[in-house]
C-alpha cells in the first residue's frame, strides 16, 4: 500500500511540474511590421533564417505593411508589437502629443538606401549638373525625399529653385514613370537601381547614402508601454539582431545573398549579391543596434532642412539606448 502511495504522489508531483516546464519552454511571439520588403534589411532576414530569434526563445511573425504611415498605424493600433520603419515617424507621432510615444530601441540601417540614376553613364558626375534638369524624386515628407533634398543643398543645388522636382508619383510607380521617359534623373532604391543598369534603362551616378552620412534610416521601435511590459523580450530580440548584424559584417555578399534569397524569390541571386555588396561597401548595414546621439541629431538636421521637423525632440526622449549598450557589452 505504501508503495502505491509513493507512486501516486510521484505522479501528482510530475503532473504539477510538467505544465511549468512546458510553459517555460514556450516561445514568446513578437509581431513585427516592416515598412517594405527590401534587401536593405538583409540582417533581419539573416536573423530569421539563421534561427537567432528562436535561440532567444522568440517566435517572430513578420508582416510587410508597405509604407511608413501604414506601418505606424499598425503599431499604434496594436496590430504589431514592433515596427521596422524610419525613425522620423516616431518624431511625427511624438509631435501629436501621443499618450504612449513610440520608442526606438534598435537600429538596422545607418544610411539612406537610395541612388541617383541618370539616363547616361557618367563616371565624373558632379551634382551641379542637375541644375536645369528634372528629378523624379520620392514622396514628400519621407526620409528618401528629405535626404535627397539635403544632399542637393549640401552640394550647392536648390531642389526647388535650380531644377524641376517631381514628387507626386506613387512610390510603386516611380521606376515605371522614369522608364517611360519622365525626368532626367530619378532617385531609386535597390534592387531597381541595379536592375535598371543591367537592362540599360539608367545608370547609377551617385549614392545619397554616401553623401548624407550616418542617420537612423530604419530602426526597430515599439510603443513605450509595450517596451516597459516586455523589456526582457525586447532585450532578447535585440540580441538576436546583433548576432545577425555581426554575421553580415563577417561574411561575403554572396553568402548573405544565399541566406536571404527565400525572401526575394523573384530576384536573381546574382542581383541580390550585387545589391548586398553595394550596401556593404557604403556601410548601410548598421554594425550594431545602437542608435547614437550623433545620428539622431543628423536626422533632425535633415528633417529641419526639409521643413519637416515638427518638434526638436531630445535624443533620450524617443531613443532607448540602454538595451543596445547592454547587448554590445555582453
Automatic annotation (TrEMBL):
<dbReference type="Pfam" id="PF09084">
    <property type="entry name" value="NMT1"/>
</dbReference>
<dbReference type="InterPro" id="IPR015168">
    <property type="entry name" value="SsuA/THI5"/>
</dbReference>
<dbReference type="GO" id="GO:0042597">
    <property type="term" value="C:periplasmic space"/>
</dbReference>
<protein>
    <recommendedName>
        <fullName>SsuA/THI5-like domain-containing protein</fullName>
    </recommendedName>
</protein>
<comment type="similarity">
    <text>Belongs to the bacterial solute-binding protein SsuA/TauA family.</text>
</comment>
<feature type="domain" description="SsuA/THI5-like">
    <location>
        <begin position="42"/>
        <end position="251"/>
    </location>
</feature>
<keyword id="KW-0732">Signal</keyword>
Amino acid at each position: 500500500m505504501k508503495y502505491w502511495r509513493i507512486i501516486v504522489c510521484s505522479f501528482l508531483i510530475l503532473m504539477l511540474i510538467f505544465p511549468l516546464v512546458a510553459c517555460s519552454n514556450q516561445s514568446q511571439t513578437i509581431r513585427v511590421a516592416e515598412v517594405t520588403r527590401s534587401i536593405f534589411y538583409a540582417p533581419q532576414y539573416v536573423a530569421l533564417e539563421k534561427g537567432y530569434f528562436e535561440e532567444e526563445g522568440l517566435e517572430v511573425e513578420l508582416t510587410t505593411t508597405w509604407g511608413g504611415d501604414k506601418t505606424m498605424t499598425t503599431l499604434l493600433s496594436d496590430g504589431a508589437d514592433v515596427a521596422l520603419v524610419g525613425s522620423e515617424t516616431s518624431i511625427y507621432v511624438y509631435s501629436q502629443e501621443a499618450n504612449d510615444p513610440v520608442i526606438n530601441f534598435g537600429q538596422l540601417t545607418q544610411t539612406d538606401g537610395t541612388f541617383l540614376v541618370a539616363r547616361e553613364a557618367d563616371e565624373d558626375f558632379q551634382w551641379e549638373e542637375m541644375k536645369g534638369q528634372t528629378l523624379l524624386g520620392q514622396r514628400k515628407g519621407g526620409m528618401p525625399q528629405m535626404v535627397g533634398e539635403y544632399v542637393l543643398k549640401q552640394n550647392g543645388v536648390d531642389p526647388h529653385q535650380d531644377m524641376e522636382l517631381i514628387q507626386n508619383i506613387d512610390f510603386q510607380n516611380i521606376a515605371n514613370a522614369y522608364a517611360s521617359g519622365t525626368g532626367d534623373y530619378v532617385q531609386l532604391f535597390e534592387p531597381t537601381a541595379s536592375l535598371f543598369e543591367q537592362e540599360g534603362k539608367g545608370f547609377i551616378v551617385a549614392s545619397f547614402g554616401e553623401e548624407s552620412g550616418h542617420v537612423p534610416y530604419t530602426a526597430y521601435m515599439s510603443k513605450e508601454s509595450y517596451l516597459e511590459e516586455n523589456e526582457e523580450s525586447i532585450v532578447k530580440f535585440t540580441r538576436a539582431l546583433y548576432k545577425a548584424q555581426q554575421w553580415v559584417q563577417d561574411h561575403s555578399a554572396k553568402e548573405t545573398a544565399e541566406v536571404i534569397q527565400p525572401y526575394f524569390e523573384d530576384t536573381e541571386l546574382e542581383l541580390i549579391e550585387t545589391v548586398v555588396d553595394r550596401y556593404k561597401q557604403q556601410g548601410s548595414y548598421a554594425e550594431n543596434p545602437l542608435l547614437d546621439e550623433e545620428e539622431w541629431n543628423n536626422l533632425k538636421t535633415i528633417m529641419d532642412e526639409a521643413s519637416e521637423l515638427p518638434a526638436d525632440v531630445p535624443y533620450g526622449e524617443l531613443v532607448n539606448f540602454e538595451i543596445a549598450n547592454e547587448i554590445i557589452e555582453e
